[in-house]
C-alpha cells in the first residue's frame, strides 16, 4: 500500500495540471484531472494517442462521476451496481459540457468505479474522478510495473508506486444502453 506522502505527491501533481502514472486492477494507468484541457492534451501527446478514441474515467464512488454523465435510469443503475466497484467500464450518456478530449467522437463517456484500494484512495484524496488510460505508448503493451512506466513514458510528472490488483486483462467495456460488451 502506498504511504501517505506518495499519495499526497500524486494529488499535488494532479492539482498542478500534471500527468501521473499509477497502478490499477490489471496494468499501470496514466491519468490527469479530467477538467484540465491542457493536462488532457499533454496526456494524449505523451501516450501518442489519437484524441478521437476517447478516454476512461475512474472514480472511488458514483458521486464522483455525476458531473460527467447525464442522469441514469434506475434499471441502468441496477446493472452498474452489479459490477461496481470492479473491472467493468460502462459507456454512459455524457453531459454536453464535458470535453471531447474525454469522449472522442462518441456521445458517451467511459466510466468505472475502481476496486483497486490504492487507486480508490487516490481518487478520494484527489476529491474526484481521474482519467485512466493504460500506461503505454500507443500500440505497445501496457506497463506492468513502475520501471516499464518510466521506460515507455519518461515525460510523466509523477509515478505512484504500488502493486497491480491481480486482474489478468484490462477492464471489460460495456454499453449501458444496449448491454453490448465492446471489449
Write the layout of secondary structure elements.
Blueprint: H1 4-15, E1 20-23, E2 28-31, H2 37-47, E3 56-59, H3 74-83, E4 88-93, H4 100-103, E5 108-113, H5 117-126, E6 130-134, H6 146-152, E7 158-159, E8 172-175
Parallel strand pairs: 1-7, 3-5, 4-8
Antiparallel strand pairs: 1-2, 2-6, 3-6, 4-5
Helix pairs in contact: 1-5
GO biological process, one term: tRNA threonylcarbamoyladenosine modification
Domain YrdC-like: 4-183
Subcellular location: Cytoplasm
Summarize the structure.
This protein is of the alpha/beta class and 183 residues long. It is built from six helices and eight strands; from the N terminus they run αββαβαβαβαβαββ.
Account of the protein in words:
The protein is 30% helix and 19% strand. The protein is α/β, with parallel strands linked by helices. The protein has one domain: Alpha-Beta Complex (DHBP synthase). The chain has an eight-stranded mixed β-sheet with strand order 7-1-2-6-3-5-4-8, sandwiched between helices.
Which structural class is indicated by helix and strand composition?
A: alpha/beta
Distance between the termini: 29 Å
Q: Strand percentage, roughly?
A: 15-25%
- Number of H- or I-type helical stretches: 6
Radius of gyration, taken over Cα atoms and rounded to an integer in Å: 15 Å
Q: What is the top-level CATH class?
A: Alpha Beta
